[in-house]
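name: query_chain
kind: protein
chains: 1
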Amino acid sequence: MTKQAYLNRSFLGPYSAIARLLLVYLGILGFSRFLLTIWQFDRLDGIGQFAVVMLNGLRVDLILSGMLLAPLILLVPLLAHRFSWRLWQRIISIWAVLTVAVIIFMELASPTFMIEYGQRPNRLFIEYLKYPEEVMSMLWEGYRLTLVGGILITAAVAYGMYRLSKRWINQQQPGWAYWKTLLCWPLMVFITVVMIRSSFDHRPANPSTFAITPDPLVNDLMLNSAWSVYFAVYNLKHEEESNEVYGELSHEQILAEVDEEKPELIVNASANPPIVNPQHASEQREKPLNLVLILEESLSADYVKTLGGSGATPELDELSEQGWWFENLYATGTRSVRGIEAVISGFLPTRARSVVKLSLSQQNFFTIASLLENRGYLTEFIYGGQAHFDNMASFFVGNGFQHIIDREHFENPVFEGSWGASDEDVFNKLHERLQQHHASGKPFFSFAFTSSNHSPYEFPDGRIEIEGEKQTPENAVRYADYALGQFFDKARQSEYWKDTVFLVVADHHNRVEGENLVPIEKYHIPGLILGADIQPKKLTTIASQIDLPTTVLSLMGISASHPMIGRDLTLAEEQNKPGRAFMQYDDYFAKMVGNEVVILRPENTPLYGRYDHTTQTLSMNGSPEYEPYETTLAHALLPSWLYRCRCYQVPDENVSFTQSGKVMMTESPATHPHENQVETPGKNTVR
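structure:
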């Protein structure tokens, strides 16, 4: 029998090339998972869990394979016959090369992404594609060999797939009668649908289906990277309802749970906003203080000696003795914009993108800048990179920031890396601006965001003693700490010091990963309030980033109504509470009160556990059916609701206080007229 005759008698006829492509998909994905799992074998609970990962991984690979093969299956009746056979063969060949290239590239990208973020490529992988200049610069400086090697290997495999597919489709005719092809087509469609759904329940399988261990990395090993990214993109289209996957509560129930935890709130489900915090400043001042907020990139507690870290921040450790030092402060998320929304807006985290990026929050969304602007403050944002990154400029200009100062405004910077001007340049510009503001006599709020401590960890020579290779997280932290110390040396000697409160806080840890479903220890960050007449104090209560804006407003001497639910930690009763923190980690929402933790999972029962702050270990005790977790659910659902109804804003009414401290609601003060301005070199431009 000739080779051609054998091909024409193929068991699957026109479906044979599709079947071969399926085997290629499964072979590549299975082999990649095998290597990744061997690499991370110490995270597994023995050979039994290895088998669980591989078997569930096969199920995920069948899902992706079904999705990739579905277009070909649907085209079979139209093209898999003798009149268009050549066209059908070309389509299969092109599709095979493209899809295999995508799979290979995503799997090759996985190890580096897992090292950096502790997960397979996900939504972050897509979000960064919006900023090619910054990201390509970061990849080229920090991951050059990996990037070039990945592209070359992908190209080589794609070429090999092209050669292989040419052999598969070397048939001159379909090999089956057309009626036989049509007869089998419904069965092929059914098999494809079953592969894609991977479930006979009313909902198809999704990544949470495979979250069957307490270790998020092990759960991610069961996935494949192409499907992980696809599902992240799919979720972006439904992110406004993203937190509803945790459960359901009515708006009245949400408010009741939130109000029970913080009874001083004024709540009304039919009002706009439905939550008003009538905050009475504990510090009564004739003239409220100015505010400087310094958000430090990726500065976790792991590096701070006074928080049990490595000791890479001697300047910050020394500063911690000069102000209010938070010993148990926790970030709300793992990205910079998550930290921004918490410390600028006091907004709780969600599974969706940060409100800094979402469309409905680009105007009339509450920030402390909008509150202070209404009090006559000059408000500005200072950043060494491009302020358009992560949509920061649009969000800030639309919500109370009058001036945006970014890379274009730094003349002859001391050093410029992939993410822009160095921390020294940012602090030099901040010092310069604060001197100008003080001389003008106008109150001010300046928000400075650093970036030197960001991969690929670039900073100027001659500042610190380098340990090992220069561009490491530890050395970048040492430099960031050096620059911070230099700034405060100048600030303390300046005229603006006595009238200004400074808040220094990290946005998040540089690498948030761990063996717990939510790695709480990686959310522990430093926070410090100092300046003016603030006396040193150690705060041991558990605090969240959302507690910081309410606390600094009170220290500044500003009484105001606002929608923030953060605690005012200037109050003794709040300092004596065990405290609570909220954390969003991938698809999981966690609330920690004291040492008790409730973790919400998408379309699954919540989990209950206890966190040992000394050993930094989380012990899960199963479902919290015997514990009240509705409060956690209410706090998870609240931000999505407030975002969708566009009711997280400065209230139409304001708070007035009598001498006895009684709260009275009055009309809001007249908004101070201004033009939102974005500075360009040498002039101010009205936006």
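note: Residues 1-9, 655-687 have pLDDT under 50 and may be disordered.
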